[in-house]
């Protein structure tokens, strides 16, 4: 596990909701790690007036088809998942409620999920 966060970054938002979204992403990264030792990196940086929180892993990643459906309620992209299909759906709903957006990007090995949140939401 690796964390790269500038300690001077500040954001006015609901810390509990952000924590729940990050927890869901980290759990997914561990579940879908494949046969390798799991590695999860959490980064945060200021981009314009948003804070981007990026969770990257070295897991199985997602096909384009799975990425298109990944945020759908009850969607499970793999039989390996014993979950409810609510994890990424919940992440998207939380991020939208906080005025942000979430994006998926396939890496050479793994997946990158970016949560972009406004730094000061009224």
Q: β content, as a range?
A: 25-35%
Structural class: alpha+beta
Number-wise, the strands total 5
Helix content: 25-40%
Which second-level CATH architecture applies?
2-Layer Sandwich
Count of DSSP-assigned helices: 3
Round the Cα radius of gyration to an integer and report it.
Answer: 14 Å
* Morphology: globular
CATH top level? Alpha Beta
One letter per element, helices H and strands E, the order comes to: EHEEHHEE
Q: Give the uncertain stretches in residue-range form.
A: none
Q: CATH homologous superfamily - what is it?
A: Histidine kinase-like ATPase, C-terminal domain
Distance from first to last alpha carbon: 33 Å
- Widest sheet: strand order? 1-2-3-5-4
- How many separate domains make up the residues? 1
Average pLDDT works out at: 91
Outline the biggest β-sheet: 5 strands, mixed
Q: CATH fold name, please?
A: Heat Shock Protein 90
